[in-house]
Amino acid sequence: MSFLQYKTYIEEGDLVIAYITRENMMPLVVNPTMTYNNKFGTFKHSDMIGKEYGSKISSHNGRGFMYLLHPTPELWTHVVPHRTQILYIADISFITTYLDLKPGSIVLESGTGSGSFSHSLTRTIAPNGHLYTFEYHEERAKAAKQDFERHGLSDLITIECRDVYKSGFEITDTVHAVFLDLPAPWDAIASAKRAFKQRRIGRICCFSPCIEQVQRTCASLNENGFVEIKMFECLIRNQEVHTIPIYTVKDAVSKIKAQQEKKRKRREQDGEKDHTTKSQHKQEPPNLYVSKTPTEARGHTSYLTFATFLPILDE
Amino acid sequence: MEIDQSLSEILSVTTEINKDIDKNIKGKKVKGVEEVEEVEEIEEEVDIEVLEEEEEDTCYIHDNQYVLILLPSGKFGVFHTNDIIGKPFGHSYEIHDRDKIKIIRNVAFREVDETDANNKETIDDPSKQKLSYEDIEQLKKDGLEGQKTEYSKAKYIKRKEAKFSRVFTPVRPTLYSVWEYFHTKNPSKIREMRIDSLSQMLTLANVRAYSKMLVIDDTQGLLISGVLERLGGYGVVIGIHDGENHNFDIMRYMNFSKKIYNSLRILSWQQVFKEEIQAPFNYQNESNLSEKELKFYHRKKANYERIESTRELLFKGGFDGLLIASQYQPESILETFIPYLRGSRPIVIYHINKEVLMNTCVHMRISRIYLNPTITESRTHPSMSTSGGVDFEKISSKRAKLNKED
């Protein structure tokens, strides 16, 4: 199993994303001696081997089922152990396009965090691109490195544990795009500038949740000769689709009448039940497809500050 | 942070220019997108000699390549396109001495001094007019009207500068810049698709090298361009188009290499269905044909074989994703292509009208072969002025199509 190529059948050692519900997904590495338990029962890993990705399997006590999905970077963002704040789909997508990433792109990322965005980046720049990613937290860097190896990405990723504020990136004239997810990106911009391939256009993105960070970042980008400084915010809103009956005012009148009739009958027959009146007024109204936004939705994630690196010129 | 400049014209640097080296190409320099039609034939010829090194190639301006030119909104001069060929993208040029160009230093933004001035005291009443005629004339001369904050002054200066400057910027055609051009110029051509929705489609559908994608494109090739670029020539895309001949017009502005074009196969709706049998090709003995007939015969034959092999590829199935931005009912499209998709593969459908997708969403829920259909709507700030209040919606069965045996 690799994040860079699909396969059809599940084998031992493969990563499977177990889909229980939309909110409940679980990454499983298939090991025939293991079982996975949840409130729907027990699932044997050995049952998964040989199944096609996308298959549905039932639990052993028959109380429930789940689907076995092929991992993608987007599914991984849902199930990645949250070691840090991660990027979400709207930001990931917009950054990828704005930084002009495609197969062959060479990208610098700092910090690596949980490595979730690194997965998306590497997917896009494969098979001939490269990602240099830096993380100052040693444990996180180790964990991310392990993930990259397990997911078949390590050939395309160079990960280093380093404090980039202090020692910079020590990469020169190499990358096409830079992504900085740091508390103080302005302290890394000068070093990032040297990392760019010097004779071609390049793009940088700084990811900061607060507007004060954006202001300092813009000032620093400007001082360092970056141009086209623009800030974006991406918002995504889910729409819940429902089917609802639409009653008319006549239905409202019928409803009252039905109630009155019921009362009258009850008085007359002293509580003896009569179903005829009920069915007489009950008419199925036409259904309508409607949508609404969820009552609670994710709002602001971060501001995306972009700028362009200009190629140096021969005078 | 400014977003008010727009890409005004598309310029195509064609072979024509190459031939006319050192000749003034005044009047020809900026080809509007309508005029580009004339260039089409030349493009086809050039198609064959595509440069090998793609990556480094795209950041320099080459001849036989499309270039977007960012122009000031006001009067504009003349320049020789030969003067920008071979230069890296990114810099802006100023026109001087009638038709000479020089690189100018780009200025990101100027510092704005903060003041206490605001519009609190501004009341729309002529009697409150405290300025004399002379004062007003003087202000007009200075180019600033009324009481303004430093921020609005800076904005105003910027606008005036943009109008009267003779500065232009060659812009590298990327998915973003090409989208920006068409979205500004003719949004209905691309079904009013916004760049954030296009980006999300590509991400949600996990478009990458070594995948086999199905793309239903009624956005004149914008969606196909995105998919082709992310495949980078590794993998295959079948693009389904409306009408008899394909209209993936936007594709050509992306300056794709031969390698990337090779991963594209094209079918019309008629060719998608098994029961719509193609008229069989009349194979002939080639030695009986004249040279002219032979040329025609070969073209016909290649075309027939191309369609037949693409149909075979489709019917064989095993596709990794389905992206739809079409005028046709999504349910009918799904019904057509679902048999050709593998299990656990993403489907992403775009539509400008949410209602269409609501029907699809309900259909998907009922049919039980899809997992987790979701409709999402997204916005990107700042964009109020550019989107004109039009939202896009899209549905993405993010998680997958299920195995049909289950």
Automatic annotation (TrEMBL), chain A:
<dbReference type="Pfam" id="PF08704">
    <property type="entry name" value="GCD14"/>
</dbReference>
<dbReference type="InterPro" id="IPR014816">
    <property type="entry name" value="tRNA_MeTrfase_Gcd14"/>
</dbReference>
<dbReference type="GO" id="GO:0031515">
    <property type="term" value="C:tRNA (m1A) methyltransferase complex"/>
</dbReference>
<keyword id="KW-0489">Methyltransferase</keyword>
<protein>
    <recommendedName>
        <fullName>tRNA (adenine(58)-N(1))-methyltransferase catalytic subunit TRM61</fullName>
        <ecNumber>2.1.1.220</ecNumber>
    </recommendedName>
</protein>
<keyword id="KW-0819">tRNA processing</keyword>
<keyword id="KW-0539">Nucleus</keyword>
<dbReference type="InterPro" id="IPR049470">
    <property type="entry name" value="TRM61_C"/>
</dbReference>
<feature type="binding site">
    <location>
        <position position="181"/>
    </location>
    <ligand>
        <name>S-adenosyl-L-methionine</name>
    </ligand>
</feature>
<feature type="domain" description="tRNA (adenine(58)-N(1))-methyltransferase catalytic subunit TRM61 C-terminal">
    <location>
        <begin position="64"/>
        <end position="308"/>
    </location>
</feature>
<dbReference type="GO" id="GO:0005634">
    <property type="term" value="C:nucleus"/>
</dbReference>
<keyword id="KW-0808">Transferase</keyword>
<feature type="region of interest" description="Disordered">
    <location>
        <begin position="258"/>
        <end position="294"/>
    </location>
</feature>
<feature type="compositionally biased region" description="Basic and acidic residues">
    <location>
        <begin position="258"/>
        <end position="284"/>
    </location>
</feature>
<dbReference type="InterPro" id="IPR029063">
    <property type="entry name" value="SAM-dependent_MTases_sf"/>
</dbReference>
<feature type="binding site">
    <location>
        <position position="135"/>
    </location>
    <ligand>
        <name>S-adenosyl-L-methionine</name>
    </ligand>
</feature>
<comment type="similarity">
    <text>Belongs to the class I-like SAM-binding methyltransferase superfamily. TRM61 family.</text>
</comment>
<dbReference type="GO" id="GO:0030488">
    <property type="term" value="P:tRNA methylation"/>
</dbReference>
<dbReference type="GO" id="GO:0160107">
    <property type="term" value="F:tRNA (adenine(58)-N1)-methyltransferase activity"/>
</dbReference>
<keyword id="KW-0949">S-adenosyl-L-methionine</keyword>
<comment type="function">
    <text>Catalytic subunit of tRNA (adenine-N(1)-)-methyltransferase, which catalyzes the formation of N(1)-methyladenine at position 58 (m1A58) in initiator methionyl-tRNA.</text>
</comment>
TrEMBL record, chain B:
<keyword id="KW-0539">Nucleus</keyword>
<dbReference type="InterPro" id="IPR017423">
    <property type="entry name" value="TRM6"/>
</dbReference>
<dbReference type="GO" id="GO:0005634">
    <property type="term" value="C:nucleus"/>
</dbReference>
<dbReference type="GO" id="GO:0031515">
    <property type="term" value="C:tRNA (m1A) methyltransferase complex"/>
</dbReference>
<protein>
    <recommendedName>
        <fullName>tRNA (adenine(58)-N(1))-methyltransferase non-catalytic subunit TRM6</fullName>
    </recommendedName>
</protein>
<dbReference type="GO" id="GO:0030488">
    <property type="term" value="P:tRNA methylation"/>
</dbReference>
<dbReference type="Pfam" id="PF04189">
    <property type="entry name" value="Gcd10p"/>
</dbReference>
<keyword id="KW-0819">tRNA processing</keyword>
<comment type="similarity">
    <text>Belongs to the TRM6/GCD10 family.</text>
</comment>
